[in-house]
């Protein structure tokens, strides 16, 4: 009886906006139980009344994550500033001075490969598809996060958040087709329908196949968490009925635009790349380049994984947006730094390496997901383990496309900027 009365008065307190309530219940309760129901004014704000139960009151850890990421950004920004303000400025001044004095000296450094730096890479079609898909991902996350920060998406309604992400992803097919076609046309490509089909079907097809297999496993276990057939049909309808046409519209608009012209001409015969030092090995630089972007987000990643797999609420989207901005800056800066060192060593194959440098952070994300599985989760069934690693593989692949595109776009802007600043005959 006493427990029921306590619960009733606690519920009444939550329904009212007053921080101090007075109830005239002395006549309705026994005399010896009145002292148990004394109400005191609380210092907890009304908006934060559920923080204790939702386990999201650890703001200090989130601030530590932000400070940790900011330190990484400041370190990289200092390196980029040193390259831009001192080294590059000195190189450009020296190169232009040599041109004005018409000195017959042999060119050195990154200017030496000006005739090959904008040569189309191997598998340029696939690179265009990945870049277009990455731009689509970037637009989806940016729009969804802005709506979440403004409070339009409730974190308690996880289905609503996922629905909003899918709808924004479908609508962003327009910029996916536009981005891939613009890059493809710069590579002198002519089969715009082929590149459009690959942009519209490559990543969504891989994601749908993985999702269908995992959902079939849930069906086999006769679980209520399986996605029904009608929802699967609705996803396919959104894909073929809205996303694919928008990708075609974006590709058409992109191909109508004039092709982006590189700032320097490309030689007909490719230049031989000299032997590189061990620390400029492509595999080494790619693996090193992914550490810092992952280090900028791994603390917040713990809370995201806890929200997904341990059924806790995540509603601190302001912190998440700050981490997202820091991730963008980190991916861009680490790719620019390593791209500059690569060009200085007279290696002009920067297209795919710039994409893989920041995109390799997805490898560390998947490894961290395995660490989280063995240390935090108590999953013993084989099907549950397959579901976990299947979904985390899909999430890591999406993270690879996103971070790789950010690094590529930053490196593309950087190379165009430095080679348009020097006088080349």
UniProtKB/TrEMBL annotation:
It holds the Pfam family EMP70. Keywords: Endosome, Membrane, Signal, Transmembrane, Transmembrane helix. It comes from the Eukaryota. Its main location: membrane. It is a multi-pass membrane protein. The chain crosses the membrane at residues 61-84, 126-153, 159-179, 200-220, 232-255, 276-309, 315-343, 355-374, 386-414. InterPro entries: EMP70, MFS_trans_sf. Belongs to the nonaspanin (TM9SF) (TC 9.A.2) family. This is Transmembrane 9 superfamily member.
